[in-house]
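Weekly modeling sync, notes
Attendees: S.R. (lead), two postdocs, one rotation student

Agenda item 3: backlog of single-chain predictions. S.R. asked that every request posted to the team notebook include the full sequence so nobody has to chase files. The rotation student volunteered to paste the first one in as an example of the format we agreed on. Action items at the bottom.

Example entry:
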Amino acid sequence: MVELLGERSRHDDGCTSRVSIVPTSERYTYAQMVESERIIEAYRGLMKSKGSRRSTHEFSLDESTRVGALIWDLQHGEYRLDVQERFRVKDPKPRDIMAPKIRDRIVQRLLCDYVITPVVGPRLVYDNAACQKSKGTHFAL
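Predicted structure, as returned to the notebook:
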């Protein structure tokens, strides 16, 4: 749903244009994607799925300030990725895990909801159930 633009092409008259890879009906500008309501919606969706985790709980203790700061950063082009949390799990085998902080997860959700899913989703084969709404484990079986 976000307007993704391809390579710039230069015409003989010196003007440049961009080739769109998203149908017109699904275009959103960056400014539309980072509107307060959409960021808050992404945050609430994240809390619904990850709300029981310690890091999510800590973020929610000061959610209005933190979400407000994220909105400001995204709208003013100041957003930067944070350092990921690193931890080790031992079940079923030992491995190191790198996990993005809640702030970065909100941005990931925005990108998935307004860029990746609308653009890539319709092009996936019907039987692909990975991370698609209404296609969970039971659909995959």
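Discussion: group reviewed the output briefly. Confidence is low (pLDDT under 50) at residues 1-13, 15-25.
Action items: rotation student to repeat for the remaining queue; S.R. to check formatting next week.
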